[in-house]
Specification:
Blueprint: H1 15-23, E1 30-33, H2 36-45, E2 49-52, H3 55-60
């Protein structure tokens, strides 16, 4: 696995900033991480917003879900 180094230029984005971007109709890049490995790769790539999906990750691991 590739080493994960924090990008010093990458700043955290707050929900208020996301709302402002939406109000100004700015484009945003977001990716969904289905597990921790994918979240690390997305973070390493410099994507500012990572959406967390828990149910697909559980499906990938074969864990049965109750609806």
């Amino acid at each position: 696995m590739m080493p994960v180094e924090k990008n010093a230029a990458l700043k955290k984005i707050t929900i208020h900033q996301l709302r402002g971007m939406t109000a100004r109709a700015e484009e945003m890049v977001m990716l969904t991480a289905y597990d921790n490995s994918m979240a690390r790769i997305i973070d390493w790539a410099g994507i500012a917003v990572v959406l967390r999906a828990t149910r697909p990750a559980m499906s990938l691991r074969g864990i049965k879900q109750r609806c």
